[in-house]
Design goal:
Length: 93
């Protein structure tokens, strides 16, 4: 195995590790926002308020969810790059 292949494998492993650590935060935030939204819907149903009526424009939670999805895509892309680097390292090595 050549030096280039070894460096690609080590770099790929590092990229996957960093991406996996960084993607956990945004995923947890999205799960928390979804749980809060479901809880609010159950409360509104219990109270007897009509559900499904949306306020004008996006809420702060909608904006935050969109930002977290962008971060998940970014760190997921880094994980994908790491996988490609490992495969290239194996092919070159």
């Amino acid at each position: 195995m050549g030096l280039a292949g070894l460096l690609l494998i080590v770099g790929g492993i590092a990229a996957i590790a960093i991406g996996a650590l960084k993607v956990r935060g945004p995923l947890a935030t999205i799960r928390h926002l979804d749980a809060t939204e479901a809880n609010l819907a159950r409360y509104e149903t219990w109270r007897g308020k009509q559900t499904g009526v949306q306020a004008e424009g996006p809420t702060g939670a909608d904006i935050m969810r969109a930002q977290m999805r962008q971060r998940v895509l970014l760190w997921g892309g880094l994980i994908g790059v790491g996988i490609v680097a490992i495969v290239l390292g194996l092919v070159l090595g």
